[in-house]
Amino acid sequence: MRLLRGVGPSTEKLLQRLGLHSIRDLLLHLPIRHIDRSHIVPISTVRPGQECVLSGTLGPPTAMYIRGRRRGASASLTDESGSIRCVWFTAAPWVSRWSDIGRVIVSGRASRHSPLSLLHPQIEELGDERDPYVPVYGVTEGLSQRRIRSIIRTALDGLAASVPSLVPTDYDDGTKLPSLTTALRAAHYPSSPEEGRRSAERVRLEALIPLQVVVLRRKALLNERSAPAMTLPADSLAAFLRNLPFTLTRSQADALVQIRKDLASSRPMHRLLQGDVGSGKTVVAVGACIVALTHGYQAALMAPTEVLADQHARVITPWIRGIGHQIGVLTGASSAKQRRELHESVGTGDPLLMIGTHALLQESVHFRRLGVVIVDEQHRFGIAQRACLAGKGQSPHMLVMTATPIPRSLAMTVYGHLDVSVLSDKPTGRKPIRTAWYDSARRTEALKVFRDHLDQGTQGFVVAPLVEEAPNREIRGAIELHRELSFGILKGVPTGLVHGRMPAAEKDRIIEAFRAGEFQVLVCTTVVEVGLDAPGAGVLLVDGAERFGLSQLHQLRGRIGRGGQEGLCLLLTGQEITVEAERRINAMLETADGFCLAELDLAQRGPGALLGPAQHGMIAGALTADPRLVAMARACALRIMEQGAPPEANIEALLTEFEDASGLGAG
């Protein structure tokens, strides 16, 4: 990297923050969007809500104050037709350097309300007009758009032709793929949107291939191991099903058939069970545990929080004790006596379903006959933690579960080494949840609607994005919101407060009190996002909804209506929100299908929204919302494994890099 002009030790470190460690990484770092300089419009033609690119002179910025605090900056942009105010709701000290330097390019969206202004616009130099579409990259603090453009342009001009392609020469998908060199240039600096889209696809295919090789190698390695083969007699299955207070849905029954088939094999099961909120994953997981217990083996179910572990124990206990099986619960709240008794039980090999949190990973926990491992909300655990639990047995069967629907393309990449079962339907009797959107101008109205539903006897959640108010943002934290509502619209209504900074015991006590009906309202942060089952809750208000991702909003919405009542989800946003946030809110209004929302989340925010902030650089850039492209990469990877990688591709180094980034090489 340092061979490139302008890349010294400090710049190299900044690039490495983005996961860019080589020339190949740099060239495969695709733009997140392009600024279309071919359609610069006069300021006088801008209309409310319009996305536009303007050119003019930017005046000096002035500070903005809201509620007595400095909340941002504004500056006036002027061209021959008029002026418009540019607004940033952050300190934005960098704006001052663009003032009075001549004409600049400014792109953004006009406000929907008067006075007309541009919200959080991007500022660019007028630059060289030979490039009608200018790339905008994901950057990090200290690395400007101008700097990374210059670095990538230098690499394109001097080294793009030397980057080897991993697509096998005899691969033919029925279309004429452009060469990698041609695609790299056009993906960064296209002559048209269509050329840019097509070229970016070709580059993403190149980036996906090493990951697919890792996935295929990982799957082959897993299949080499052996595990205890276990079958569930028909009478035992019938007894389990009769003991349930409900009938399985079609997809639950199908998933249980798939899991029983896996368990009957001498190869260890490695299956991902995913389903929308409230689709009933737990009962399917318990079905797998019943198979192990019937054969005299032990089972472990690990949950990310004590609240969820205790809830699992409360729900599962009557399902399995009625047919003669035992259950244990091991969490951080377990007493010393309980720990000793449970350690002794698992150590002697007693058939037992052990439900717990990270406490199951302690060295003092020794399973003697661990046959099945269940990991709930698997994305809340690291690769090493999942491997640690599985390592407490001799190649036990493993089932990982998630209530966050995973787009098909991600399931084929990051989880491509796992078999996948999908719960596509919800239990009978679950009514749809209505969703409504209110901006800050209608805040009082939204709160009144919330109170009206409480007066009908239901419980409710109020969710804030922060614990405390951010110093430079117009966002209420949970503590302030609890105080405001308790002395305002909710005066006289028993209202609890819970957030992540509270001691675990206090947090659990309040949640249990809410579940028991002692509180009618729970003001909280996203600590309730997953796992909290409160059948009495029928209304949810999310304050600052523009601050949440689609998957988060959908998970929060899934906390209500679980008792069979109709639910109402109120999304309260600021008066002016970003285009992306508006798209997320509208998606919530249009569909309650978690899989559809997950696909939209991937397309809008990228894989980091689903995989977590640690996934960035090449691993994130390789992922795509297009299953067709993933399938093409899988086909190329199969050819590479059959024929051997071309030596000039240096694929071993790439595989090591992808294994480190994705965690697929662990466990």
Walk me through what this model shows.
The protein has 667 residues and is of the alpha/beta class. Among the domains are: 153 residues, Nucleic acid-binding proteins (OB fold (Dihydrolipoamide Acetyltransferase, E2P)), CATH 2.40.50.140; 154 residues, P-loop containing nucleotide triphosphate hydrolases (Rossmann fold); 159 residues, Rossmann fold (3-Layer(aba) Sandwich). 38% of the residues lie in helices and 19% in strands. The chain contains 22 helices and 21 strands. A 7-stranded parallel beta sheet has the order 11-12-10-13-14-9-15, with helices on both faces. A 6-stranded parallel beta sheet has the order 16-21-20-17-19-18, with helices on both faces. Strands 2-4-5-7-6 form a 5-stranded mixed barrel. The longest helix is centred in the N-terminal third of the chain and has 31 residues. The radius of gyration is 27 Å and the shape is globular. It starts with 8 loop residues before the first helix and ends in a 5-residue tail after the last helix. The C terminus is likely disordered.
Quick synopsis:
Helices cover 38% and strands 19% of the residues. β4 and β5 form a beta hairpin.
Task: Round the Cα radius of gyration to an integer and report it.
Answer: 27 Å
Task: Tell me the number of helical segments per DSSP (H or I, 4 or more residues long).
Answer: 22
Strand content: 15-25%
CATH superfamily of the domain at 433-591: P-loop containing nucleotide triphosphate hydrolases
Strand order of the largest sheet: 11-12-10-13-14-9-15
Give the fraction of residues assigned to helices.
25-40%
Overall average residue pLDDT: 84
Biggest sheet details: 7 strands, parallel
| CATH architecture heading of the domain at 433-591 | 3-Layer(aba) Sandwich
Stated plainly, the CATH topology of the domain at 433-591 is called: Rossmann fold
- Taking the alpha carbons of the first and last residues, their distance comes to 32 Å
Shape: globular
Class based on secondary structure composition and strand pairing: alpha/beta
How many E strands? Answer: 21
* CATH C-level class of the domain at 433-591: Alpha Beta
Pick out the low-confidence regions. 607-620, 661-667
